[in-house]
Automatic annotation (TrEMBL), chain A:
One matching Pfam family: ADH_N
Gene Ontology MF: a single term: oxidoreductase activity
Protein source organism: Sphingomonas yantingensis
PROSITE patterns recorded: ADH_ZINC (PS00059)
Necessary cofactors: Zn(2+)
Lineage: superkingdom: Bacteria
Domain Alcohol dehydrogenase-like N-terminal, chain residue ranges per copy: 25-153
Family: Belongs to the zinc-containing alcohol dehydrogenase family.
Protein name per the record: Threonine dehydrogenase-like Zn-dependent dehydrogenase
TrEMBL record, chain B:
Organism of derivation: Sphingomonas yantingensis
CDD domains for this protein: SRPBCC_8
Record protein name field: Putative membrane protein
Pfam families referenced in this protein's UniProt entry, alphabetically: Polyketide_cyc2 (PF10604)
Region (Disordered): 1-23
InterPro entries in alphabetical order: ORF3 (IPR047137), Polyketide_cyclase/dehydratase (IPR019587), START-like_dom_sf (IPR023393)
């Protein structure tokens, strides 16, 4: 099959590799119909995530048709499914509590060592996201082996096109969980750093959960425009002093809840951030954390901090004093995708949530390397790249 | 010791013997876990470096353990103590290349299932003869035990052992 493989910093290629096979009873094999490049894939592209190996197949946002099932799978050949990016067993203590991304068993035993050493306890496996999270081959490929297929994939009813449901795999539930983690109360003002897909979905979700105002912070005009279409007020941090603006816009109180949807590649040339960049480039630290630092300082006293953004390592200059003195609460974590799927699929079918506005580019899987480069180089115009195996042939657009 | 922590977690351990203790909580009843473990022929399904264990009789078993360069080391072991559903201890018999002993306890943990703790003591061989074998066993026995217990948990809780291999060929290489 053809698959998008990582070979190093800014070097991804579509390679021909062996097709996946059923290896465990609960496995199934999916023929991918749509897969997306995630903002967090850019962390891999930029070589910010350790434990990558040349040839690793990327992609954790994908859906497709079931073409093969193991004896323990509950799926049937021919069903269309969206696959959560978290690989969770459904049987352990954490899955029992719907903390799917903390699954004890989804990550192979040997790979769990890295998480155990880095974080104290290992997390679940993830598709296409380094060997820290299992070394599983991802979904930017023609076929994918999906473990625990009786627990993860959600069956999509006929008549609902891929693009309406594809983002159930990661970014929609991640945006939803981000808003849920902000414990929004009716009348709240919520500030969201980062208007990428997760930030935009968090904005939509925050309004659905009763927020009165959402203030969106970014520097890409196109993304701020999208935020505005959902009713958010905007701050362009290249033109505006963010903290001062937030204080003025909230009558000197600060936002009731703040959401950091930026993460470890935070932009912005502020002194502390430049120091982070120097450290990152000299391997002294992997996380550049300006956005979470600013969010904590801006958040009102006794407010809530939600951090869906991906961080991987150890940071210094974290405003622990502001966090403690103001009595803030922080909720974070990889998304417990499986927990949100039924509710969010229903919301899509009922027309309460639409995610298709996000897609700016559709490419053939063969064009995936260009897709990465475009997404990396122009995050203003390129809001989401969806890859479709065979798309070029079908659309007559010769690749 | 002046605290309540297991002795295997002490900062200073006896220099003449390496001791490792690992614990895992498995969401299954102690009796079920004990029954699976007590049949030593099952252990190779989750103990990565055990090629096979032949059960000789109720108390004795023959262990075939992988060594570097495709070789194996073998020994006989005897169950030295046993409390059904609670614990089992074994020891290698005289003449083993790598004298070793183990004890596994199964402690009821209520709604969370059972805490399985393994304490493995081994005595690496001295001199040149045992060097290759020693290398194998000195390869972080604590990490080996921890991985084996995780696989035991995966097998008991999910019915399978997680792998990120994509093909049968890769899986065979991984488990070789």
């Amino acid at each position: 099959m053809r698959a998008l493989a990582w070979h190093g910093k800014h070097d991804v290629r579509v390679d021909t590799v062996d097709d996946p096979e059923i290896l465990n009873p609960r496995d199934c094999i999916i023929k991918v119909t749509s897969t997306a490049i995630c903002g967090s894939d850019l962390h891999l592209y930029d070589d910010y995530i350790p434990t990558m190996k040349a040839g690793d197949i990327l992609g954790h946002e994908f859906m497709g048709e079931v073409v093969e099932v193991g004896a323990g799978s509950t799926l049937k050949k021919g069903q269309r499914v969206v696959v959560p990016f978290t690989i969770s067993c459904g049987s352990c203590y954490h899955c029992g509590k719907h903390q799917y991304s903390a699954c004890d068993n989804g990550n192979p035993a040997d790979n769990q060592d890295i998480g155990q050493e880095l974080y104290g306890q290992p997390m679940s496996g993830l598709f296409g996201y380094s060997h820290l999270t299992g070394g599983y081959a991802g979904g930017q490929a023609e076929y994918v082996r999906v473990p625990f297929s009786d627990v993860g994939p959600i069956v999509i009813p006929d008549g609902i096109e891929d693009e309406k449901v594809l983002f159930l795999s990661d970014i929609l539930p991640t945006g939803w969980q981000a808003a849920e983690n902000a414990d929004i109360e009716p009348g709240d003002t919520v500030a969201v750093w980062g208007c990428g897909p997760v930030g935009l979905f968090a904005i939509q979700s925050a309004f659905l959960m009763g927020a009165e105002r959402v203030i969106a912070i970014d520097h890409f005009p196109r993304r701020l425009e999208l935020a505005k279409t959902f009713g958010a007020e905007t701050i362009n941090f290249e033109e505006t002093k963010t903290y001062e603006a937030l204080m003025q816009m909230t009558g000197g109180i600060g936002p009731d809840a703040v959401i950091d949807a930026v993460g470890l590649e935070a932009h912005g040339f502020f002194v502390d951030n430049v120091i982070d960049q120097i450290k990152a480039s000299t391997f002294l630290g992997t996380d550049r954390i300006h956005s979470i630092r600013q969010a904590i300082v801006a958040c009102r006293k006794g407010g809530r901090v939600s951090m869906p953004a991906v961080y991987g390592g150890i940071v210094d200059k974290f405003p622990l004093g502001a966090f403690m003195e103001k009595g803030l609460t922080l909720k974070t974590g990889q998304t417990h995708v499986q927990h949100y799927l039924p509710g969010l699929l229903a919301a899509i079918i009922e027309g309460k949530i639409d995610t298709t506005f996000l897609i700016s580019h559709r490419l053939d899987l063969e064009e995936a390397p260009q897709g990465y480069k475009m997404f990396h180089d122009d995050q203003n115009e390129v809001t989401k790249v969806v890859l479709k195996p065979g798309f070029g042939a079908r659309s007559g657009d010769v690749v | 010791m002046t605290d309540d922590a297991p002795s295997a977690t002490a900062k200073h351990t006896s220099p003449d013997q390496d001791l490792t203790m690992q614990s895992v909580t498995i969401g299954r009843p102690a009796d079920e876990l004990f029954a699976y473990f007590r049949d030593f022929s099952n252990l190779s399904s989750f103990m990565d470096n055990v090629e096979r264990i032949d059960v000789i009789d109720e108390h004795r078993s023959h262990w075939v353990v992988k060594a570097p360069a495709g070789k194996t080391v073998e020994w006989d072991a005897t169950v030295t103590a046993e409390e059904p559903g609670r614990s089992i201890s074994w020891q290698s018999e005289d003449g083993a290349d790598v004298p070793n002993s183990g004890r596994v306890t199964f402690t009821d943990a209520g709604a969370r299932g059972t805490v399985v703790s393994a304490t493995i003591a081994y005595d690496p061989p001295a001199g040149i003869v045992g060097k290759v074998i020693a290398k194998l066993f000195q390869r972080e026995p604590a990490i080996q035990a921890r991985r084996d217990l995780r696989r035991f948990k995966q097998l008991m809780e999910t019915g399978e052992i997680a792998t990120s291999s994509r093909t049968q060929t890769q899986l065979q290489e991984e488990r070789a």
